[in-house]
């Protein structure tokens, strides 16, 4: 797939104006032969934080599979190959061996595996307002779920804390967690760390080795079909987990694990696999391989540069840590309606408007969104 050699960096500034207002300086615009060109669309689509767009290769693979299956030629071996290609690509994306990666279908199912491993009533610390899939499995397993503001989460870790469960990038606000502080606090107090990287992997470089466990659904920034999720878990923490969802695909040799009870589970993290949604992985494998083959730091710079320009255009505050997601108060949905009327796909969450900038977006998307929201900007 791609590499840093495929990336073209263009330096310069933009002097065009939007209704007489100069655009922001654009020091870096990233294009890549395997990047934006890998997608059939994307102009005006600022909702990768809601769901990603399938790249051409994923679309083509799924169409071929549907046609072959309809003709009576489903490729079972090809399905399994797609699962393992996806696992390997995700492992590369987060910097771990494939033996540390389990496959799943939803993050909540993978989080429930972690919840089942904790002692009854364990203290689990989460950020206030984090995504439900991070918090509810612990709450309904009977654990003592406590919350603190994301900015103060590290300070809230105590010797009572068994686990800190948090989204690396907050879905509702786009805020990025202080990983260094959380890792230091967890180590100082003997707590485990569970990171949900669903809103991060694909635009933000992520090192899964810093956490005891990391979960990620691939249908957002990794542009895979819904139904493909991953758990990256340390070898130490693997020993504490019980394979409560074990089925045939959790076996050391899945095709000999289809019947009976005398079955040897896989010796690595694949013992926590759930039965894969085959067709979803057909589309996931080529999508994940595109992102695994690109330079993560360049993708980060591309996405955050566009988000930074958008914030400047609307005079929105600069976040503590740069994010590809921009949100602002929009309690009545007026700004979201303005974006929609201009043909821009965005989203609204928790009384806030939300836009996201990804690989398939460029400076024209920023210009269009700022122009659509100009009535609001004029009032600031």
CATH secondary-structure class of the largest domain: Alpha Beta
Which value, in Å, is the CA radius of gyration?
Answer: 21 Å
The biggest sheet, with number of strands, parallel, antiparallel or mixed sense and barrel status, is: 7 strands, mixed
User: What's the total count of β strands?
Assistant: 14
Total domain count: 2
With strands numbered from the N-terminus, the spatial order across the biggest sheet is 5-11-10-9-8-6-7
> What is the string of helix and strand elements?
EEEEHHEHEHEEHEEEHHHEHEEHH
Q: Bin the helical content.
A: 25-40%
| CATH fold type of the largest domain | Aspartate Aminotransferase, domain 2
Residues in β-strands, percent: 15-25%
- CATH homologous superfamily annotation of the largest domain: Type I PLP-dependent aspartate aminotransferase-like (Major domain)
Overall mean pLDDT stands at 90
Specify the overall morphology. globular
Architecture blueprint of SSEs:
Elements: E1 7-10, E2 17-18, E3 21-22, E4 29-32, H1 56-70, H2 76-94, E5 101-104, H3 107-117, E6 123-127, H4 132-139, E7 144-148, E8 161-167, H5 179-189, E9 192-196, E10 213-217, E11 229-233, H6 235-238, H7 278-292, H8 296-314, E12 325-329, H9 334-341, E13 347-349, E14 352-356, H10 363-372, H11 374-379
Parallel strand pairs: 6-7, 6-8, 8-9, 9-10
Antiparallel strand pairs: 1-4, 2-3, 5-11, 10-11, 12-14, 13-14
Could you explain the architecture of this structure?
The protein has a seven-stranded mixed sheet with strand order 5-11-10-9-8-6-7, sandwiched between helices. It is globular. It starts with 6 loop residues before the first strand and ends with a helix. It has two domains: 28-55 and 296-379, Aspartate Aminotransferase, domain 1 (Alpha-Beta Complex); 62-292, 3-Layer(aba) Sandwich (Aspartate Aminotransferase, domain 2), CATH 3.40.640.10. With 380 residues, it is an alpha/beta fold. The protein contains eleven helices and 14 strands.
């Amino acid at each position: 797939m791609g590499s840093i050699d495929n990336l073209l960096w263009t330096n310069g500034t933009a002097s065009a104006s939007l209704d007489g207002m100069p655009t922001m300086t654009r020091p870096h615009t990233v294009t890549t032969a395997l990047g934006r060109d890998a997608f059939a669309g994307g102009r005006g689509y600022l909702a990768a934080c809601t769901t990603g767009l399938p790249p051409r290769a994923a679309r083509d693979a799924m169409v071929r599979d549907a046609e072959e299956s309809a003709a009576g030629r489903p490729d079972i071996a090809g399905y399994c190959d797609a699962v393992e290609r996806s696992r390997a690509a995700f492992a590369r994306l987060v910097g771990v061996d494939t033996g540390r990666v389990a496959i799943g279908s939803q993050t909540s199912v993978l989080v429930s595996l972690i919840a089942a491993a904790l002692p009854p009533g364990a203290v689990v610390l989460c950020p206030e307002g984090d995504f439900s899939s991070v918090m509810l499995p612990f709450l309904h397993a009977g654990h003592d779920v406590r919350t603190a503001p994301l900015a103060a989460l590290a300070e809230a870790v105590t010797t009572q804390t068994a686990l800190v469960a948090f989204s690396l990038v907050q879905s509702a606000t786009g805020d990025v967690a202080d990983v260094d502080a959380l890792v230091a606090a967890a180590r100082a107090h003997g707590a485990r760390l569970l990171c949900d990287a669903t809103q991060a992997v694909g635009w933000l470089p992520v090192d899964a080795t810093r956490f005891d466990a990391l979960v990620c659904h691939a249908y957002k920034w990794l542009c895979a079909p819904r139904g493909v999720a991953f758990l990256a878990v340390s070898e130490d923490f693997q020993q504490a987990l019980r394979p409560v969802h074990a089925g045939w695909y959790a076996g050391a040799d899945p095709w000999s694990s289809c019947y009976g009870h005398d079955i040897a589970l896989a010796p690595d993290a694949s013992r926590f696999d759930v039965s894969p949604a085959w067709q979803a992985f057909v589309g996931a494998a080529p999508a994940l391989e595109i992102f695994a083959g690109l330079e993560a730091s360049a993708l980060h710079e591309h996405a955050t540069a566009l988000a930074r320009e958008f914030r400047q255009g609307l005079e929105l505050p600069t976040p503590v840590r740069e994010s590809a997601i921009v949100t602002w108060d929009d309690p009545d949905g007026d700004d979201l309606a303005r974006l929609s009327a201009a043909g821009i796909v965005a989203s609204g969450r928790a009384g806030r408007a939300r836009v996201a900038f990804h690989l398939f977006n460029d400076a024209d998307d920023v210009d269009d969104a700022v122009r659509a929201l100009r009535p609001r900007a004029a009032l600031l």
